[in-house]
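Handout, section B. The chain below has 145 residues.
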Amino acid sequence: MATSVTLTICFDAPFWVGVVEIAEAGEVRATRHVFGGEPTDAELYQFLLRHGSALLARAQANPPVSAETRHQGRHNPKRAVRLAAREAARTARGQRSTASQEALRREFEQRKASAAAEAKQRRQDEAERKYALKRAKRKRRKRGH
């Protein structure tokens, strides 16, 4: 049960993004960090020293996605062209092509749902607070002060 951790830095217009993938037991967990400008090697090293454990913890907290097992043997060249075209069409339709991208999508949806729940709770709390103020004001008017 070997665990491999991979950090990939890529340009996702207009920012540089780091994707951390943790692969273990046929499952992949991933998270991403937006760097902004292109990080130098020294900046990347300092970032990993300061925030590496938090980044790994964030990746571990995400739901796992099963890794696709791919055939490593030789393919017929025509078959390889067909598979590449099918993969290109799949990504053009908006479907994710790798397990790490699927894990990132699930992480995004999870954060989106939790943010929506927190916003709803804040709105309810604010409405209750306003109602309590309105009730207190009405009570003061009834007392004749």
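Note. The first strand starts at residue 3 and ends at 12. Compare this with the example in section A.
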